[in-house]
Amino acid sequence: KSEVIEMNNLGYKKGSKIYNFSMRLNEYSKYLIEKPLSETINDLDELGLALWVMDDGSLHKKNYFYNINTHSFTREQEESILIPKLNEFGIYPTILTEKKQDGRLFSYLYISKWNGAMVISKILRKYIVDCYKYKLIPKEIEDAYFKLDLEEFNKIPSEYKKTTYF
User: Fold this and answer.
1) Mean per-residue pLDDT for 126-143?
2) Which of 1, 48, 64, 82 has its CA 20 to 30 A from that of 57?
3) Mode of pairing for the β-strands spanning 105-111 and 94-99
4) Structure pTM?
């Protein structure tokens, strides 16, 4: 059960409303929280991946790559748990760390169009919610990718792949 409580004038700004969200966990939620991360990720299926990307992923439409937020994971968890699981889907991410001006570090899994972005888009398309359709790669680009003879394509030098548009 969850509830939203509206509170007024708590000293932040006169006349502003502050909302507090609280939630009681059911037994299944408690089980998931107590379960080791490696076991939880091991249970990740296409729907779980789609929900993760819709919630914490971003599509960069110019070059068709995804970043998935992994700020709350350690580097070791990214390398030993998340990446191997994504590899099972045919997704081969690179870990990127962004340093903000104030020194904070933020991690992402970067998935290029050649290393799984098209796979993510195809999975998302199965489960997409209307408000997240902007996270889909255009269907004609996705279809063209899956029609490629990837064995032949992989023989093309990487400097040419960067400019390849299909």
Assistant:
1) 93
2) 1
3) antiparallel
4) 0.73
Question: What is the residue whose two structure tokens read 């350690």?
Answer: 74
Structure tokens at 162: 């960067």
Tokens 């937020």 label which residue? 69
Percent of the chain's residues with pLDDT above 70 = 75
Q: Cβ contacts of residue 38 below 8 Å, gap of 6+?
A: 80, 81
Q: What is the 3-state secondary structure (H, E, C) of the chain?
A: CEEEEEEECCCCCCCCEEEEEEECCCHHHHHHHHCCHHHHHHCCCHHHHHHHHHHHEEEECCCCEEEEECCCCCHHHHHHHHHHHHHHCCCCCEEEEEECCCCCEEEEEEECHHHHHHHHHHHHHHHCCHHHHHHCCCHHHHHHHHHCCHHHHCCCCHHHHCCCCC
What is the per-residue pLDDT for 22? 63
* Res 105 pLDDT > 60: yes
Question: What tokens does 153 get?
Answer: 């394509």
Joined tokens for residue 34: 């107590």
